[in-house]
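> @MW can you paste both from yesterday?
MW: sure, first one:
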Amino acid sequence: MEASILLQVKRYAGQLQKKKKKKKKKKKKKRGTKCKKKKKKKQNRKPEKKGECSYEVQQVLHRNNTELHYK
């Protein structure tokens, strides 16, 4: 009984510190699929045929006025 009272007094005085419990680190869960998706290769644009324009003419209606926009 006396020993427990002495421990309490020492703790109160700050001479004795309680042992801190170490926290276990949680492992992060991996998101998404386990297998990686393969990236698709970009295909080269089709070569232009001779005699064709390199741009496309697109007709756009804008406030009842027809304007030609070039791509």
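MW: second:
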Amino acid sequence: MEHYGKEKFAASVEDLHERSTSEDEKLLCGYGRELEERTCEDHSLPSFLNPYFLLFILGQTLHGVGSTPLFSIGTTFIDESVTQKASPVYLAIHAVLTSFGPVIGVFVGGFLLNIYDDFDRVDHPPIARSDPRWIGAWWIGFLASSIAALLVAFPILGFARELPEAKRHRAKDVNQVPKESFKMYLKAKN
């Protein structure tokens, strides 16, 4: 994990106060001037092959791969395992919970940003929350989500391929299909 793979964060006063306005302007290449100026070329941008960037891309890929079954296989599993009458209720509960999850995540993430990043390494934060150098404990949400996902994954792996009542529900759903089809309707018209 990135938090434990780096040294303790130390925000220096020099980062904030000693930088002159001209140095700040060099860092803002293209703002209020042409992009072709020499100052913009002098500062090399960090490479996109940075290990943390690649770790981020890997995490997003795993997130996408992991959420795909929830929306495709999970919806089908619900639909085939309950009665036709109860299916919309379960699918609505599924939709509501998957909608509120990100909202709750934003609020919890906002709360976690009020906790100092290295709270486990320092007794008391060296800077105030209002200081621009403040870095919140953004990583706690990812750690908690990973642990929760692992704890939930093991019981889910124990699910049967189909629930015991699924065959009966499917047979009942097939019997509810109208006997007449469009083809029969066309024959009756002629």
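> thanks! Residues 11-45 form one domain.
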